[in-house]
Amino acid sequence: MAEAVEVVWEGFDELIESYENYSKQTSERVDTTMEQIGAQGKEYMQALTSVRTGRLREGVQVTPVAGGFELGNDVPYFGFVNYGTRYMAAQPMLEPTAEWITGQMENQLPKALG
């Protein structure tokens, strides 16, 4: 190349370092927000859960996964109560909780990214 111009961005390394710190802080805020939403979702689902013996309410579990959490119930008969059977009407807990969590995420995550 006969003619060339060298362009050097002074402070580029500092900018990258600053971005990495910002990215880490943002990631931590998002993780904290998701943990809070998970805990609130558990409480919400427990409030929707019918109580006869308390086992269904106690069975609500929140498990962290990459990028969020899993909310469910480990009681073997949960599905029968949540979805119903041909003999018993459904008492939905999971779907209303998922809708509520979606609303919380739409409301709180932009603030965490902010």
Write up this protein.
The chain has 114 residues and is mostly helical. The chain has a domain at 33-93. 59% of the residues lie in helices and 11% in strands. It has 4 helices and 2 strands, in the order H-H-E-E-H-H. Strands 1-2 form a two-stranded antiparallel ribbon. Strand 1 (60-65) and strand 2 (68-73) form a beta hairpin. Helix 1 packs antiparallel against helix 4. It is elongated and about 75 Å long. The two termini are 45 Å apart. The mean pLDDT is 86.
Write the layout of secondary structure elements.
Elements: H1 12-48, H2 55-58, E1 60-65, E2 68-73, H3 78-83, H4 94-113
Antiparallel strand pairs: 1-2
Helix pairs in contact: 1-4
Assign a percent range to the helix content. 55-70%
Listing every helix as H and every strand as E from the N terminus to the C terminus, the arrangement reads: HHEEHH
Largest sheet: 2 strands, antiparallel
The side-by-side strand order for the widest beta sheet comes to 1-2
Number of helices, counting only DSSP H or I runs of 4 residues or more: 4
Strand content: 5-15%
Work out the radius of gyration.
Answer: 23 Å
Distance between the termini: 45 Å
The average pLDDT value, as a whole number, equals: 86
Q: Count the strands?
A: 2
Estimated structural class: mainly alpha
Tell the overall outline.
elongated
**Contiguous uncertain segments of 5+ residues:** none
